[in-house]
Amino acid sequence: MTIVAITREMGTLGKDVAAGLGRALDLPVIYHEVIDHLADRMRVRRSHVIRLLDGSAGLLERLTADKTSMAIYSADEIFDIAMKNGGAIIRGWGATHLLRDVPNAVCVRVCAPMELRKERMMERLDTEDAAAVTEEIRANDEAHTAIMKRHFGLNWTEPEHYDLVLNTQRVAIDDCVEEVLGLVRSAEFADSEEAREQLEDLALAARVKAALRRAPETRSSKVEVSCDRGEVTLIGDSSATEAKLAAVEVAVAVPGVKDIHVRTRS
Fold this sequence. Notes:
The protein is α/β, with parallel strands linked by helices. The chain has helices spanning 14-25, 32-42, 46-54, 59-64, 67-83, 95-98, 114-125, 130-152, 173-184, 193-214, 241-252, and strands at residues 2-8, 29-30, 87-91, 105-111, 164-167, 224-228, 231-236, 259-264. A 5-stranded parallel sheet has the order 2-3-1-4-5, sandwiched between helices. Strands 6-7-8 form a 3-stranded mixed sheet.
């Protein structure tokens, strides 16, 4: 099972790097598929999800957006995709941070200087309106930064969050692909039983979180979920028996859950 997670900014050609990896590894490149699934689960228009992601959503859309559900459901989708088809190349969606603890997942950032990104986007959009393109890039960058800060509490541009950072001003697309393939094929990122178990635990915890969010009786509860070989631990603020029982009833119905432990957050 091969997993490559890629984060990139508009105009960096990260999309082209992902496509090259998909061809080289004969794996699906995932991005738009998550949008469709997420829109269905949140019962909103596909265009609404896209605007929230790229920073073009209006004030009312931002104020009424269920950002918590988006984070929970998108994480569930990413882990599910990572376990299917023998692996995948996943663009965006916080996959580089969600999958960071999976031993065989290669986490990559593709970047480029702002001026070069602007030139590329102007050419791609066939426009000479440099100000409009700069504003679009800026809004997209700000939206990405805000999402990563809110969901993961980190500055996503810092290099220590990645196994490899590639600057497409200096490194050609084919060479970027070869650099990533070098890590994919290395002993350090080899598929293993440990990696599969870690991914299965993360995926199960994400499914339980999604189930708790979906169920009316537990939707508003703030419960931390962790998993160890099918045994799920729920940690919440409430010591009320009724709240605990509700969470347990929802979690135990999730396929793959073998046992449940409940704790109150200290």
